Amino acid sequence: MTTASAHCSLGVNAQFHENSRNFPSKSESSSVNFHSNGEFFKISLKPSLGSSICSKGCVGRVCSLPEIGDLFPEKPPTPILDTVESPMHLKNLSHKEMKQLADDIRSELLFIMNKTQKSVKGSMSVVELTIAIHRVFSAPMDKILWDVGEQTYAHKILTGRRSLMHTLRQKDGMSGYTSRSESEFDPFGSGHGCNSISAGLGMAIARDIKGKRDRVVAVISNESTMAGQLYEAMSNAGYLDSDMVVILNDSRQSLHPKLEESPKTPINALSSTLSKLQSSKLFRKWREVAKGLTKRIGKGMYEWAAKVDEYARGMIGPLGSTLFEELGLYYIGPVDGHNIEDLICVLNQVASLDSTGPVLVHVITKEDKVVPNEKPIGISNKYKEDPYEMDPQPSNCTQTYSDRFAEALTMEAQIDKDIIVVHAGMGMEPSLKLFQQKFPDRLFDVGMAEQHAVTFSAGLSCGGLKPFCIIPSTFLQRAYDQVVHDVDRQKIPVRFVIPSAGLVGSDGPTNCGAFDITFMSCLPNMIVMAPSDEIELANMVATASCIDDRPVCFRYPRGAIVKSNSSLCHGVPIEVKEGFL
Questions:
Q1: Phi and psi of 521, rounded to 5°?
Q2: For the whole model, what pTM was predicted?
Q3: DSSP state, 496?
Q4: What are the Cα distances from residue 411, in Å, to 398, 481, 483, 538, 541?
Q5: Over the stretch 20-48, which tens digit does the pLDDT of each residue have?
Q6: DSSP character at residue 148
Q7: Which one-letter DSSP state was computed for residue 532?
Q8: Which of 158, 163, 443, 548 could staple 421 via S-S, CB 3.0–4.6 A?
């Protein structure tokens, strides 16, 4: 690939300079680093036939560029957002102004995405919810905790960090997650998900012991509901009965684990009315009085009334909503996550209730929520299939270790039918789609359930299969107890694949995989391997497949491979020696 750099200013013809190489041939494509007003943009180029460069010092063919209006980033007007410097300014906005504020924030997020090349899809779904939370609650006195970092960008914009958003996930810039050291509006750090209810419950108990009156709000997501810690925290919250608010941002629009087998949760006038009724102070007080009366009557009346209440609320609520009631949280919902009036009404009523225990508000959102009358920002959206996703890498880009691992494992699985893949973490790596397409019945993606993934893999191994348990380095830390007791101590041959090992660049210290060598190599029965190139990686896949008397693991970084021109061959098992880590 040839890369040329160009310098240009508004209203002036672009002038291109050769960067030590010629432009691509007819069949090749390239990219240009475009410089304007101190900002850099990388644009994919396709060769234009029969065109030549007339500018001085340029040789070769002109690459066809997008229109000049699509190259220069024009920041969209955000009149309401410009007046908001802290959450306190939301208190005086009208409902119409808050709707405009939501559009302003989405425009700002799209501009940030084009500028930083970081995905904002998660935050696009919670814009109205973020506004409503900060309108009703008074941060930083009230504690607002988030499970998923990608959903916090609107929160960061509204809490005085807008001017720093261009440094998002950059060196010495702003964290992609909530950070206690970054702002007083971040009471607890997020990163790996599922910790907000546990931390929030601790803060609520500390508040009760100290006699304070601040409120605690924990925002969780669909990804969080896959993690066991979330249910441990909910169960304990229901038992301790301390006041806190849990908000479930349901962007999948269903609580059922299999979306294809369940209808989407309906949002209509009836569901809105019922949610407001459930959250109203009068209804909650009447419910508490009824509980007290049935307890006094005795003779099983309280248990009978509780069953009637659960049955009635299960009838009007979405599928799966009674689970939260069983754990001890009072369920309210579903609520339209893009209707600011409904959100503020429900949250106001929830915030006004005292001594009623933990409450869960089920909010339905859409990740593809668009900005009305949106204008192109930076590189026009007509060059993108999905304006909220980052541009996919070109097919001829340098391959990564994950790509070569997936290829090597697929080749090995074609020979050995016992090979099974178990994946855990925030999301399945795109490279594994190759294996999934070839062997859809031999890949299990368990989501954010690393502990389960390890023990599940141990069970598969005991059943005579050869599981490859793929967990990114930083997430494997969460399942270390299972690695020790359920795998290594019993010498069960589970093959741990540890991607994203070492430093991870813009993902920062939260996702840094710096500790796996230490905590895996100290185990008595574990074989630890680390390849120096993609050829050794393929050999280690073959080696791990052959080992059947003890566990083995191998780690690799998320960067590009070393020998990019080498063709991948079937791996050759390596002799295990003491030199192995």
A1: -75, -15
A2: 0.73
A3: E
A4: 20, 32, 27, 10, 10
A5: 334 344 344 444 444 444 444 444 444 43
A6: -
A7: S
A8: 443
